[in-house]
Specification:
Blueprint: H1 3-28, E1 33-42, H2 45-59, E2 65-71, E3 85-91, H3 94-102, H4 104-116, E4 117-125
């Protein structure tokens, strides 16, 4: 086989393996995860403002980012509107979310939010990548 053909065949094989590898990685990728909260009452606004000022820095090492922060819920059906507002933080995976939740940094400030707010917070996984 001529060297030019070998080079072309090697390039084609490398590209094909790369495409297959990317497809397999996408199939095995973890779904994104979300921490969702309905903050119904803030009992100490000044302390809560201090908390919200430092919580963002705790997210970065775990790939977390706010996608909804302090939004009023918009009710589209006949459900009663819940009091307060909504917070949604997106993470690359549930593992990242749990690692953030259990991290030393967030564990130090989480009691502040728990003490000065009333509401519900929970984690949920998104749809797996296709």
């Amino acid at each position: 086989m001529k060297p030019a053909y070998r080079m072309a065949l090697a390039g084609f094989a490398g590209a094909a393996l790369g495409v297959i590898g990317m497809a397999l990685a996408a199939q095995n990728a973890a779904p994104k995860a979300y921490w969702i909260a309905n903050i119904q009452e803030v009992k100490d606004p000044e302390t809560y403002r201090n908390y919200t000022g430092i919580v963002t820095a705790t997210l970065a090492p775990y790939g977390g980012q706010f996608i909804v922060r302090g939004a009023a819920p918009v009710i589209l059906d006949k459900s009663p509107k819940p009091p307060g507002y909504i917070v949604v933080i997106e993470f690359p995976s549930l593992k990242n979310l749990r690692d953030w939740w259990d991290s030393e940094t967030y564990s130090k400030i989480r009691p502040i939010r728990e003490r000065v707010t009333v509401g519900q917070g929970y984690a949920a996984e998104g749809v797996p990548p296709s």
